[in-house]
Amino acid sequence: MRASDIVGLKVAHVSCVHMISRPSPAVHLSEKLEDFLKEINPNHKFNKWIADMKSVLEENMFAGNCIRKKQIPKHYIRRYGVNNLYRYDHPEGFRSCYTLVEYGGLGVCPLILDLKTHDVYDRIFGYRTT
Q: Buried b / exposed e across 51-74, counting CB within 10 Å, b at 16+?
């Protein structure tokens, strides 16, 4: 499923409090991330990192660090209409953000939105870098 298919889907209402381990029926990628990964070599480390992330999220959709609602950047609210957001750390300081979305017959599933360098992530979240 592509991010363009998110129109009409419900963003899951999830609280950061008392997260338990819960497997996911499926893990999806945003259209932009999917297109980016298709453009690079299939053996590139980014493809491996996202594949590893998908495996982790299939076992536990709450594996990432939950971002408090008041700290969700407008970038994600405007672009994806999210009301929940999680950060996932990759090697070499890279970060991915994902949201939990209600998919028709599947239930709640993670949607991986992006893969960003630490500096870009800090800029989006308004953190000062030196």
A: eebbebbbeebbbbebbeeeebbe
3-125 carries CATH number 3.30.2310.20: yes
pLDDT in tens, 9-48: 556 666 665 568 899 999 999 999 999 999 999 999 999 9
Under DSSP, is residue 124 helix (H, G, I), strand (E, B) or coil? helix
Predicted structure pTM score = 0.86
Query: How long a stretch of residues is the chain?
Result: 130
Residue 97: strand pairing partners = 87
So where are the chain's domains? 3-125
Helix, strand, or coil (residue 53): helix
Question: Burial, 99: exposed, middle or buried (Cβ in 10 Å; 0-12, 13-18, 19+)?
Answer: buried
